[in-house]
Design goal:
Blueprint: H1 3-24, E1 31-37, E2 47-51, H2 73-84, H3 90-97, E3 103-112, H4 118-125, E4 136-143, E5 148-154, E6 161-165, H5 170-173, H6 176-189
Antiparallel strand pairs: 1-2, 1-3, 3-4, 4-5, 5-6
Helix pairs in contact: 2-6
């Protein structure tokens, strides 16, 4: 699959993932998702998305009893990334081997006031900031060609805002959620 078609297919798959999340409603546990090519032996190819099985208690670190402040979901993602990118991450390798095609992208789906990178990088992404206190569902992904995908739905909004950057700037590519997703994707492909 050529890079342009791959980007379009990944965009369609991730848009579908966000639509499914919206249909299920809000207050879901975050997810780390792989986008895989299911028919790599054909010219057309089709994609499927699978969730990396992660103990949901990791995502609940932000809601520890007695905590004065809550930690954002990206803290859980950072902890997961640290474990999965070690030289011997059997869970990640087993999950990857169980797929029927090669990984094309990795994505993080989460909700809340602290999930989107758009608060920090709104101008770089061309997206509105969630700083007005409205929860946002954010789907942040990176693909094997180095693209950055960001899909946002503000709670109560009928539509999503999306951006696909073919060559993301360093302030997006190298920090936060995007950097963690890229590290896990690189580990899968190694």
């Amino acid at each position: 699959m050529n890079p342009e078609r791959r980007a379009a297919a990944i965009t369609a798959a991730l848009t579908g993932v966000e639509a499914l999340a919206d249909a299920r409603g809000w207050d879901a546990v975050p997810a780390l998702l792989g986008v895989f090519e299911s028919t790599s032996h054909t010219r057309v190819g089709s994609l499927y998305v699978d969730e990396l099985p992660i103990d949901s208690s990791i995502w609940r670190m932000h809601a520890m009893p007695g905590a004065r402040a809550t930690a954002p979901y990206w803290i859980g993602l950072r902890a997961i990334t640290a474990v999965l990118t070690t030289a011997k991450a059997p869970e990640l390798r087993a999950w990857t081997r169980a797929q029927i095609g090669p990984v094309l992208a990795l994505a993080f789906l989460g909700e809340g006031l602290d999930t989107s990178e758009s608060g920090r990088d709104a101008s770089a992404l061309g997206l509105p900031s969630p700083d007005d206190g409205i929860p946002v569902r954010a789907l942040t992904a990176c693909d094997v060609d180095g693209r950055h995908y960001q899909f946002l739905r503000y709670r109560g909004a009928a539509t999503i805002t999306s951006v696909v950057l073919d060559d993301p700037p360093a302030e997006i590519r190298d920090r936060g959620i995007s950097a963690d997703v890229r590290r896990v994707l690189s580990t899968i492909r190694a």
